[in-house]
Amino acid sequence: MSENEAVSAPKPLDMSTVDQAAILLMTLGEADAAEVLKHMGPKEVQRVGAAMSHLSNIEQDQVHSVLANFMEQVRHLTGLGVGADNYIRSMLVTALGEDKANGLIDRILLGGNTSGLDTLKWMEARSIADVVRNEHPQIQAIVLAYLDPDQSAEVLSYFPDIVRLDIMMRISALDTVQPSALQELNDILEKQFSGNAGSQTTTMGGYKCAAEIMNNLDSSIEGELMEAIKEVDEDLGNQIQDLMFVFDNLRDVDDRGIQALLREVSSDLLIIALKGADTELQEKVFANMSKRAAELLRDDLEAKGPVKLSEVEGAQKEILVIARRMADAGEIVLGGGGEQML
């Protein structure tokens, strides 16, 4: 087997959960796979779709391994019939964590409906910006707090500096949103494209939400916006910055976490990202690879030559997206806080 084939067709034990999902869907056939994808969110569809397009040379034992693993997991699931509500709550909290699960639980179990807001998650960032551009800044803040941080960051990039500052200040001050307000916002959005909120307030916004959005902004916008926030409220700026996780903070991730992350990152992406990393972080990466792999990576780094800062920052942010996704899934633990990325 060639080196390229080894990369495109990983052994069962080395496969990521996304690759396993891709193989499983590919075995179902187009119609059944499409039915499964209908129940996934936009980010999940994008990730699984990308994995399906990149996988090749899948061996029969890999397919068997994936199917056996899937059957072993579903064999223990008994959420049908009595106690379904408790099962759903437990399953969602385990899978998503308390904060993320609460809103989804409300919509499923309390009959809530945020289809207007959910529609935005499938739209291009520029289109979302156009939809909310003329709304009150508080509405804009609630919308961006509701979206995923990377999508919110892209939407934010289409607003003028002064508007970005206002929205970020409002997101930081958000805590909960009354169901009537959320329903009103949903109705506004449904008039433009396609409601009944639950009985509980919805938690969104806050310092952590602001930090996650800031993490996903381009470095130039992030730096300017952070300076502007600190000019208005230095304590707020420091609190947001303390919650931000940047590439250099990977030094604080334990060895097991680094090894898990490296399995999800391509060599080409890692080389570009490490061109902008300090010696300490580079050595941590080398130490968590086999001796042969570390030697090859060192050679590739030296041979790479100069790389544009924008390319380095882009590669680092891609790796951070993977790291945060793995942290959300409980696969690794990220350390907190840090200075702005180089």
Automatic annotation (TrEMBL):
It is a peripheral membrane protein. InterPro entries: Flg_Motor_Flig, Flg_Motor_Flig_C, FliG_a-hlx, FliG_M, FliG_N. Keywords: Bacterial flagellum, Cell inner membrane, Cell membrane, Cell projection, Chemotaxis, Cilium, Flagellar rotation, Flagellum, Membrane. Residues 227-334 form the Flagellar motor switch protein FliG C-terminal domain. One of its GO terms (molecular function) is cytoskeletal motor activity. The keyword tRNA processing does not apply. Residues 126-198 form the Flagellar motor switch protein FliG middle domain. One of its GO terms (biological process) is chemotaxis. Residues 15-115 form the Flagellar motor switch protein FliG N-terminal domain. The keyword Thylakoid does not apply. It is found in: Bacterial flagellum basal body; Cell inner membrane. Gene3D superfamilies: 1.10.220.30. GO terms for cellular component: bacterial-type flagellum basal body; plasma membrane. FliG is one of three proteins (FliG, FliN, FliM) that forms the rotor-mounted switch complex (C ring), located at the base of the basal body. This complex interacts with the CheY and CheZ chemotaxis proteins, in addition to contacting components of the motor that determine the direction of flagellar rotation. PANTHER family: FLAGELLAR MOTOR SWITCH PROTEIN FLIG (PTHR30534:SF0). Belongs to the FliG family. This is Flagellar motor switch protein FliG. It comes from Candidatus Endobugula sertula.
